[in-house]
Design goal:
CATH architecture of the largest domain: 3-Layer(aba) Sandwich
Distance between the termini: 35 Å
Helix content: 55-70%
Number of helices: 20
Largest sheet: 5 strands, parallel
Shape: globular
Number of domains: 4
CATH class of the largest domain: Alpha Beta
Radius of gyration: 23 Å
CATH topology of the largest domain: Rossmann fold
């Protein structure tokens, strides 16, 4: 009942906001700043105040945001629920991951699960501290060492906020499905495990419920019970709820749950997932979405264990079976080919990656992340002409995200989506104006997952 009431409350807030905008009224947007705060007088508090006062507030001033940080909420007592509500409902969150703070990563994961806009930032010189599980998310470097560098950082942040505002704060995912929640929590789980605050996830086949909160979980909806188990870091109990999830919520949610546990290293969950794949292969055209999910789980399962070489072999076998099946869609073939390419990337096997990326973009030419992956590989291989052609096509595709736009900008290309004028044949314009292209970063971009 509490869950239902909360959903109703969030729906009312959203509808109210839409109505008053429709009637021409204005509502001040909220930006919630997620950063380590520390005690007064500490270096962490000094860094947090500089981040807020020298970067965030100046950057957002022209956008008329109400900038909020947890310790500056004008309320006698601020409880965890207040903070989580801001994390989930603020129009935009700006997250500083510089100090690898566990609370920051928790709130970061909760924000990711909403699909709402956020900007992830890190202080210059600390990028080697970005953990693998968030390395694929665009992270902006900032430098407050001098007034000039602070101004440059403010301008960079403003560019990203401008992009968010121009899309009307559009969410990147809809709803709180078990898959989206699980992915965010699984990323959080791995990070907190490294920080030593949660016991190591179980491995192998001996999986039994821990008994913690058993009555509560048994009387909860299975998806909610699965979510609560993940939130507690209890992968054993999460595994034990999956059969109930399958019965109550259907095969798609069941596969999503198996996928979360597989990516966390639970071999039993992965074995069951592969069994499900075999059943679904009887009709791949009807089960495209489920098989798409399984392909990405296969990639992550092997990459997370440092066995990308085995992952490539298994994904190639999967791809060959699909191309031999008379009822397989091009979209599904492209998904698996893209997964092979991303896994090859983890081993610096760029020639193999280029082979499968070419397959993916040929089968699904309108999927921007596939073209983006191809651009990154050509960049690594030093194939300048192929890179130019790929960037030109990328710049005409609709729905580019911040990573795609950043790559175009770095190489001096303007975003000119062909859908604006389908008959014009307009393509990318390479910018020649001095100072419009940023210097290429040293850190290699991670492949975009789709």
């Amino acid at each position: 009942m509490l869950c239902r009431n909360e959903n109703i409350r969030q729906l009312i807030v959203r509808l109210f906001t839409e109505v008053i905008y429709y009637r021409g009224l204005t509502v001040q947007r909220t930006c919630f700043v997620i950063s380590p705060i520390g005690q007064a007088g500490t270096d962490i508090r000094k860094d947090a105040d500089e981040f807020l006062e020298l970067l965030i507030e100046p950057a957002l001033e022209r956008f008329d945001f109400n900038v909020v940080r947890a310790d500056r909420i004008p309320r006698p007592t601020v409880i965890t629920a207040d903070i989580i509500r801001l994390v989930q409902e603020a129009d935009v969150c700006i997250i500083d991951i510089t100090h690898s703070n566990p609370n920051v990563f928790y709130e970061c994961g909760r924000r990711h699960e909403t699909g709402k806009p956020f900007v992830q930032m890190i202080r210059t010189g600390k990028t080697n501290a970005i953990p693998f599980d968030v390395a694929g998310i665009r992270t902006i470097e900032y430098d407050l060492a001098t007034t000039r560098k602070a101004r440059e950082s403010v301008k960079t942040l403003q560019d990203f906020i401008e992009e968010i505002v121009s899309t009307d704060f559009r969410e990147k995912a809809a709803g709180h499905t078990m898959g989206s929640i699980g992915e965010a929590l699984e990323r959080l789980e791995r990070k907190i495990n490294r920080l030593g605050t949660v016991s190591t996830p179980i491995q192998g086949s001996a999986i039994k419920g821990s008994g913690e909160g058993t009555i509560e979980l048994l009387t909860s909806h299975p998806v909610k019970a699965f979510y609560k188990s993940l939130e507690r870091g209890d992968l054993q109990t999460a595994f034990s709820t999956l059969e109930r999830v399958k019965t109550a919520a259907g095969i798609s949610e069941y596969i999503a749950g198996l996928g979360v546990l597989s990516k966390a290293g639970i071999k039993d969950a992965y074995d069951i997932l592969i069994e499900q794949r075999e059943e679904l292969m009887d009709a791949p055209d009807e089960n495209e979405e489920k098989l798409d999910t399984i392909a990405h789980v296969m990639k992550d399962y092997y990459v997370n264990q440092g066995r990308a070489d085995v992952g490539i072999q298994e994904l190639e076998k999967f791809y060959k079976r699909l191309i031999e099946h008379p009822n397989c869609t091009d979209r599904l073939k492209a998904t698996v080919a893209n997964c092979v390419g991303m896994t090859a990337w983890m081993l610096d096997a760029f020639d193999l990656g280029a082979k499968y990326e070419a397959i993916a973009v040929d089968l699904a030419p309108d999927v921007a992340p596939y073209r983006y992956n191809q651009c990154l590989t050509f960049q690594e291989l030093g194939e300048s002409e192929k890179l130019h052609n790929a960037l030109t096509i990328l710049s005409t595709l609709p729905g580019l995200d911040a990573n795609h736009l950043d790559l175009l900008h770095k190489h001096g290309y303007q975003y000119a989506p062909a859908e604006d004028d389908p008959k014009s044949g307009r393509s990318a314009k390479k910018t020649t104006k001095k100072g419009t292209s940023r210097k290429a970063p040293r850190k290699r971009k991670r492949k975009k997952d789709v």
